[in-house]
Amino acid sequence: MEVVICPDPDAAAALVADAIERLVRGNPEAVLGLATGSSPLGVYDELARRVRDGTLTLGRARAFLLDEYVGLPRGHDQSYRSVIHRDLVSRVDLDPAHVLGPDGNATDLVRECAAYEEAIAGAGGVDLQLLGVGTDGHIAFNEPGSSLASRTRIKTLTSRTRQDNARFFGGDPDAVPRHCLTQGIGTILEARHLVLIAAGGSKAEAVRQLVEGPVSASWPATALQLHPHATVLVDPEAASRLDRRDHYVETYEAKPEWQGL
Ligand code: GLP
């Protein structure tokens, strides 16, 4: 696992955008794994800027979302499909027909989850998966206790996550849906490159566990330790509880510039 402590959020966003640009230049039909939430917003801003400037095209790329709430009315402004459209798709040249997410309104949700797995596999798998992390260590919506081998399925959100996400629902945790569909941890681990972004002191414990804690379903993000190519970008506050902080800084400073993430 590579840990990059980045004091400047714009620099972190540029590093991740560089990795995406390199990927798409090598394979214009690359498959991106998109995350919602505040963590990847800087990356989306940077991708939008590059597409607007004409230095990058995502016109032939394909993308899959990590997760979706169950039961929000279609077109609800907090459904992850709407959120990703607002935050990224509408601002770049991705073909909306090539951006897929699990359908939280499907009549048969179990079938929907299996079909979503098939769609990801049918596209050849995800090349680069963006991730945030919940304050309780969840990735996508894999709450603590999720099997590290799990596949896309229906999950129940914890009250802590509903509390954390209440800010998007008028501050009311009860307005946050109770259920979701989410890629499993096993599904996420099959992506070829995992890029997790975390900022702020509220993420410090989750980051400590994910980087230096024992691998455990109690902290789902620790599953990244099992992946051969995982990059974790954190700001100094999110890195504040890491024991080997100095070593990560030293390692990154000594890394040849051409190597990328
Ligand atoms: C949500 C999403 C996750 C996201 C997490 C952190 O629960 N399902 O995919 O990583 O929150 O969100 P944020 O980046 O806003 O802190």
What is the secondary structure topology, with strand pairs?
Blueprint (H helix, E strand, L loop, with lengths): L1 E4 L3 H18 L4 E4 L6 H13 L8 E4 L1 E3 L10 H8 L11 E2 L8 H14 L5 E4 L21 E4 L2 H7 L13 E4 L2 H5 L3 E6 L5 H9 L17 E5 L10 H9 L8
Helix pairs in contact: 1-2
The protein binds 2-amino-2-deoxy-6-O-phosphono-alpha-D-glucopyranose.
Could you explain how this protein is built, in words?
The chain has 261 residues and is of the alpha/beta class. Helix content is 32%, strand content 15%. The protein has eight helices and ten strands. The protein has helices at residues 9-26, 41-53, 80-87, 109-122, 159-165, 185-189, 204-212, 245-253; strands at 2-5, 31-34, 62-65, 67-69, 99-100, 128-131, 153-156, 179-182, 193-198, 230-234. Strands 1-10-9-6-2-3-5 form a seven-stranded parallel sheet. Helix 7 links the parallel strand 9 (193-198) and strand 10 (230-234). Helix 1 crosses helix 2 (41-53). It starts with a strand and ends in an 8-residue tail after the last helix. The model has no long low-confidence stretch (mean pLDDT 97). Bound molecules: 2-amino-2-deoxy-6-O-phosphono-alpha-D-glucopyranose. 2-amino-2-deoxy-6-O-phosphono-alpha-D-glucopyranose is lined by residues 35-39, 66-67, 132-134, 140-141, 161, 165.
- Percent helix, as a range, is 25-40%
Q: Note the main sheet.
A: 7 strands, parallel
Would you report the number of β strands? 10
- H and E string: EHEHEEHEHEEHEHEHEH
